[in-house]
Each structure stands twice: as C-alpha cells, then as structure tokens.
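PROTEIN DATA CARD
Card holder: histidine kinase
Chain length: 606
Origin: Gracilibacillus thailandensis
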Amino acid sequence: MWTNYRRLTSPSFRSKVFLASFICIGIPVLLTLSIYSYLTRDAVEEQAMQNAKKELDLTEENVGRVIDDVINASNFVQIDSELNTILKNKSNLTLNEVDNQSYTEYLEDRQVRKTIENITLLGEKSYVTILLKNGQYYTNYSTGQFDPNSFYQEQWFKELSSLNGFESYWSGVEPTMLTYERIQSPYQLSVARTLRDSNSGIYGYVIVTLLETKIRNILNNQNPSEEIMLVDDQNQILSHKDPELIGEQATILADIPLTDSSQIAEWNGKKYVITHKSLTFNDWRLVSVLPYKAATSNINSIFSEVFLLLAVSFAIFFVILAYLMNRITKPLRHLDKVVKKVQTGDLSVRANVNSHDEIGQFSHSLNHMLDRVNTMIDEVNQTHKRKRKAELAMLQAQINPHFLFNVLNSIRMKVFRFGDKESAGMIQSLSKLLRWTIDNKEDQITLFDEISLMKDYVNLMNMRQKNKVELEINVTDEAYQQLVPRFLLQPLIENSIIHGLNQGSGQIIITADIHNEVLQLSIRDNGEGISPQQLAKLNEELRSSTTTKRSNKGFSSIGMANVYERLQLSYRVSPEMNIESKLKVGTMITIKIPLGGEGHVQSHVS
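Structure generated from the sequence above:
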C-alpha cells in the first residue's frame, strides 16, 4: 500500500512530462470542443425539427391517400347519376314491393351491388353500406354477422340530417362491426353522407368504413423510436402503433400545447421533438413524438465527425510527444528491467543500449560487471567439480570391480580344487551377475546374454531355497540376436519365484519369437496365480505407471512398473506389456517389442 502511495505522489519522469503537456495543451483543447458543442446545439435542434417535419409530411401523404380512397368511394355513390336514379326509385318502394320485385328490378339490385363492389377494388379495401329510407340496404360485405340497420342506433347517425351537399361526417374510432375482422383489426373509422333528391330531401345514406389497421400499418413503417398518432380535435387517439392506446386521450398533448408545426418540449423529465400536421378533409391531426436523443443522433453523428477531426488535429501533438518520450525513456526502462532480472538471480541477461551518451556508458559498465561476476562463478564451479571428481576417483579406487572379480574367481578355483563343484558353480554365477551389474558400458544386450544371466540367477535362487525351480527356455535363433534392456527379465523371474511359486518348486518357461517384425517375449509360471480384482488393478497401475501405492502381498507391482517404464524409455515405438493370470493355474507376462525402434533413450543402469 505504501508503495502504491509513493507511486502516486512521486510520478515518473514520463508521467511528469505528459502531465505538463496536458495542462498546457489538453485543457485548451477541451475548452475549444466544449464551446464548439454549445454553438452548434441550436443548429442541431433546428435540423432535427426539419427532419421530423419532413417525415411527418411523408406520413400525412400516405395516410391522406388511404383517406382519399374512402372519400372517393362515398363521392362515387353520391354523384353517379345512374346509381342515384336506381336508388331513388328503390327508396320509393315499400318492403313488400321490394320482395315482389320484377326481373328488371332484380337486375337493378344486382347492378347496385356490383357497382359498390367495384368502387373499392382500386384503392384500400373498405366496406360500403347504402341505407334507404324504406329500410332497404346494399353492402359489399356479408350481413350475416352485422345488420346494416344497426347504424340507425349510433349516436353520431343523428348528426347526418344536418349535413348539406357533399358534407361528410366522420364517426371517429369505434369497435369493428364485422366479427371476423376483429381479431386482426379491432377498430374501424367511418365516413357518412346523405343521399338527397332534387328537392334536397333525404332518401338514403352512404357509409364507408375503413379498418384502423390500414392507417396503423403506415404509422408502424416509420422510425421505431418515433411515436406517430392520429388524433381528433379532442386529442382522442384514433390510430396508434400500440392498439391499447387507441380511444384514449393523448396525455402528452394535454400537458403540452401545440403551437408551431414543430417544437422541442420537455415532458416527464425528458426532451421530445413534437411535430403535428392537420388533415385537409376534417379536424383530425397527425402528431409525431420523437425523443430528442433519437432525433439528433444522425445529426450528432455528422457533428461528431467534425468533432473527431478537430480532436485528432490537436491529438497529433500528443502522438508526437509520446513517440519522442518513448524513444528517450526506452533505454531507461530497458535498464530497469535488466536490473530487476539481476535481482532475481538471472545473471545471463545483458543490457542492449548502444547509445554514446551517459545511459550507454552505464549500460556498458553494467554488462562488464555481469561478465566479471559470471566468470568468478564459473571459476568457483570448476573448482568444486574438480574436487568432487578427485573424491569420487578416490572412492572408486578403494573398491575396484576387477579386484572383486579376481577374488571371487580365486575363491571359486580354491573351492573347486576341494571338490565342492556346486559351491564353485554358485560363485561363478554370482561373479557373472556381479560383473554385468557393475559394468555400465552397455545399456542393451542381446537376448541370448540376458537369458544366460537369468540361468545364473535361477541357479543362485535354487541354491538359496530348499525347493528347486525349473527354468525352460524356448527361444528361436533370430530372437536370440535381438537387443533388449539389460536385466529386463530379472524382476519378472524374481516375482514368479517369490510371489508366483511362493518360493516353492515349480516351472518357469521363457518363450521368444519374432512375428510380423515384432519380438514377442513371454514369461510363464505354474504358480498360485492372481485374483481377477488384483489382476485388473495391477494392469491399471501398469498402464498409468503408478508406483506410489503398492501392495505388500501377492504379486509385486514395483518391479513390474520398473520394467514397463524402462521399456518405454528404451524404444522410440512404445512396446506393449500385458499380464494374464488364473488362480491355481499360473501367471503369464507378455512383452511385444516392435523391431527397428531401438535407441530411444540410452539410460545407464547401475
């Protein structure tokens, strides 16, 4: 903690230079950018309002096109002379006369229905209803789910009698009259007109109904963050991309009076760009509410590019300064790293500073000092090595292996002269084993020499114990010539004698042959065998080369693991080793060594 505090209170040379540069240049840059941002804010807001107005004009054009189709449909019914003649004649008939109409009158009814069906094909799909004063009606939709006479019960229907000429009455938003349309479009908008004769008497009504989703789809195609709504003169929402708000009051319009066509106002703690436009056919309005951030994001991106260009121009100085400071302080930082590595004990590191100034001279002196220290350490190490070699030579001279061999041979000859041939043979076997054990010149010997050693080893073991072990050899001449690690078979035969035969009498068979460029070597005994559980555990330990936990009873896995590990280290191609055993039958160890893979590791076994 104290170190961190000192770093903060005592900055480096580079930090001091950068701090001074920031105070002299960075602060003026920040002040300049702040003033620039303040001066361009008004321009950003003006551009945002203009963009919002253009988008609303486009929306108004699309909505007006839909409304025009509805008005054109009502206009056609009202001004078509042939259609009006038929409707006037129909309105003068009673319902009984309508039911008993002639074929000509039937054709006239068919023409009326076909006409109102055709007038809605070119524009947006709308539903046309013609009501006559005698109760007869014509529609372009199925009346099975809605009775057109229900229009007479609407509150707004009473207002139609006060209309003159081509005046229209807009009913506002109301639930969709057709049941099968309510799922997709729960609301509708209707425009109604009167049909008058030459004496201005009302003989019927025409009502054109538009599904609100037609307008909602237009509003949904705008900016996702922009909220556009269609409202009436009472600020009731007639269409909105959120259907749940339709029919509700636009609260934002109640709190914010609309003055100009586009303005920026604050509502519920947030700034909005509010734009409105009145429709030409009635007192409805389109109102756009756009969050200020979303409205200015595109414009701000343009100013941000200018901002960035200005900032980069000022930042060039810092880049140049950083480059120069890096060039100046780089040798110092390099020397600091070298000194820290030397403190950890790494004396092989050197300072690579080739300048001719004071830093270069210091670097040269540091390298010379490290060279001198390394030279002194090498001298001390060489002295210790020579001393150790002398001590080792003295120790080896105390017991010369040849001296041991000569003594054993002398003892063997003396015993042999006294007629104890068995003891002489035992001494001879021991002498041979001792010579191969001490001699470390050869790591690998022929299988012939290895089996000869095992014969001597079994002889010695038979002389030690009461019960004799019979050793049977079945090896081909080609297999005899193959090289194997020295004393490869000794741990396996020892395990067979001690644990397999339990130091009793028995038979050990060594078999070796070559099949498909693989030396197959097996050692089999007719001893007690191994239980399946212990055998599985032994094979598992053998594969994982685990030697930490060994059983003190039964088959010894220490020697087995040693043999397996020596095989893996002695050949480039990994040999295989497997143990098979049955209780009361015996155990067989199989080794498979691929030929041509010798010489992986030349380890010396002593």
